[in-house]
Amino acid sequence: MRDAIQSDLSTDLLDWYDRNARVMPWRVGPGDRAAGVMPDPYRVWLSEVMLQQTTVAAVRDYFTRFTTRWSTVQALAAAPDDQVMGEWAGLGYYARARNLLKCARVVADDYGGAFPDTYDALLKLPGIGPYTAAAIAAIAFDRPETVLDGNVERVMARLHDIHEPLPGSKPVLKNKAAALTPNTRPGDYAQAVMDLGATICTPKSPACGICPLRDPCQARAAGTQTDLPRKTPKKPKPTRYGHVYIAQREDGALLLERRPDKGLLGGMLGWPGSDWSDTPVNTPPFSADWQELAGEVRHTFTHFHLILRIWTAPLPAGLHPHRLIVLDKHAFRPSDLPTVMRKAHDLWRNR
DNA sequence: CACACGTGGTG
DNA sequence: TCACCAAGTGT
């Protein structure tokens, strides 16, 4: 039995969370959870997948639109692929959307619409890796699993003043995080430690003065907090070039393509175009008097910069190039495009 | 293990 | 302007 006077780190963190928990559309706050309210696993799963490498601010509206349009995993599983990809457009990492649908269909078809409630079973589902499996098990099912995301890595590296760089230090950080994971309120605890990293123990200017872990924090004692966690240096981004072709019919219809499932922007709607390379081959989708627009589209992906030239031509009535999509004026929504393609559309529209 | 995979905010 | 960074996963 733990001494009621002595407070350990996880208790301090939970106390802090009880006072500072941020309100989010997918979250059941500590007060409601204490009253027996459990989160909807569908909403926990959807939010966690959206939050992979993505900020809360960027996710909020997407989450609301998704849950308004598809309120259950069965509803999502029954949705056409292009509607889900269109709703995800702009959020990035589009493999998440493809895996989201795969996962929804497995849960609907093989689990009767009820998400599995263990780490091991969750980990087998598409798009659910070690972090997300632990997060769903902890948050949705209150299992004492240890979440290890960028926030927790930073908090643990600082708390224990660990100087070994990521990703090599990941196993050590995971052990440290596991040692702190409590058996009581593990769902609130998982959110507490991530909230701490997101709001107090931030990468650039941590607010150590108001941190609930300021006393035991070894990096703060050593003055090394802003140097941690160390990371192995990243490779420089090369610049690639490309051409895109925007053709419009007199009635307003536009010529687009559905990108292949594999690779960059996989499964997304886009403009037909060249390869993206040092010296892209300028090969329009049909013969016409293509005009090059003034200006260019600049966009940065995870691992390269891209500069696109935009070409335009009238689309002859009756022409429908093989494997391309002719979208009626009213069926085309710019918001269905990934951001780089939307930038090209903006440049063309304002020509 | 290293790399591919988006985007928007921040300093 | 630009590198870094965000509730990572799949290959």
Automatic annotation (TrEMBL):
<keyword id="KW-0408">Iron</keyword>
<comment type="similarity">
    <text>Belongs to the Nth/MutY family.</text>
</comment>
<dbReference type="Pfam" id="PF00633">
    <property type="entry name" value="HHH"/>
</dbReference>
<keyword id="KW-0227">DNA damage</keyword>
<dbReference type="GO" id="GO:0006298">
    <property type="term" value="P:mismatch repair"/>
</dbReference>
<dbReference type="InterPro" id="IPR004035">
    <property type="entry name" value="Endouclease-III_FeS-bd_BS"/>
</dbReference>
<keyword id="KW-0326">Glycosidase</keyword>
<dbReference type="GO" id="GO:0035485">
    <property type="term" value="F:adenine/guanine mispair binding"/>
</dbReference>
<dbReference type="InterPro" id="IPR004036">
    <property type="entry name" value="Endonuclease-III-like_CS2"/>
</dbReference>
<dbReference type="InterPro" id="IPR023170">
    <property type="entry name" value="HhH_base_excis_C"/>
</dbReference>
<dbReference type="InterPro" id="IPR015797">
    <property type="entry name" value="NUDIX_hydrolase-like_dom_sf"/>
</dbReference>
<keyword id="KW-0004">4Fe-4S</keyword>
<keyword id="KW-0479">Metal-binding</keyword>
<dbReference type="InterPro" id="IPR044298">
    <property type="entry name" value="MIG/MutY"/>
</dbReference>
<protein>
    <recommendedName>
        <fullName>Adenine DNA glycosylase</fullName>
        <ecNumber>3.2.2.31</ecNumber>
    </recommendedName>
</protein>
<dbReference type="GO" id="GO:0051539">
    <property type="term" value="F:4 iron, 4 sulfur cluster binding"/>
</dbReference>
<keyword id="KW-0234">DNA repair</keyword>
<feature type="domain" description="HhH-GPD">
    <location>
        <begin position="50"/>
        <end position="199"/>
    </location>
</feature>
<dbReference type="InterPro" id="IPR003265">
    <property type="entry name" value="HhH-GPD_domain"/>
</dbReference>
<dbReference type="GO" id="GO:0000701">
    <property type="term" value="F:purine-specific mismatch base pair DNA N-glycosylase activity"/>
</dbReference>
<dbReference type="GO" id="GO:0006284">
    <property type="term" value="P:base-excision repair"/>
</dbReference>
<comment type="function">
    <text>Adenine glycosylase active on G-A mispairs. MutY also corrects error-prone DNA synthesis past GO lesions which are due to the oxidatively damaged form of guanine: 7,8-dihydro-8-oxoguanine (8-oxo-dGTP).</text>
</comment>
<dbReference type="Pfam" id="PF14815">
    <property type="entry name" value="NUDIX_4"/>
</dbReference>
<dbReference type="GO" id="GO:0046872">
    <property type="term" value="F:metal ion binding"/>
</dbReference>
<dbReference type="GO" id="GO:0032357">
    <property type="term" value="F:oxidized purine DNA binding"/>
</dbReference>
<dbReference type="InterPro" id="IPR011257">
    <property type="entry name" value="DNA_glycosylase"/>
</dbReference>
<dbReference type="Pfam" id="PF10576">
    <property type="entry name" value="EndIII_4Fe-2S"/>
</dbReference>
<keyword id="KW-0411">Iron-sulfur</keyword>
<dbReference type="GO" id="GO:0034039">
    <property type="term" value="F:8-oxo-7,8-dihydroguanine DNA N-glycosylase activity"/>
</dbReference>
<dbReference type="Pfam" id="PF00730">
    <property type="entry name" value="HhH-GPD"/>
</dbReference>
<keyword id="KW-0378">Hydrolase</keyword>
<dbReference type="InterPro" id="IPR003651">
    <property type="entry name" value="Endonuclease3_FeS-loop_motif"/>
</dbReference>
<dbReference type="InterPro" id="IPR005760">
    <property type="entry name" value="A/G_AdeGlyc_MutY"/>
</dbReference>
<dbReference type="InterPro" id="IPR029119">
    <property type="entry name" value="MutY_C"/>
</dbReference>
<dbReference type="InterPro" id="IPR000445">
    <property type="entry name" value="HhH_motif"/>
</dbReference>
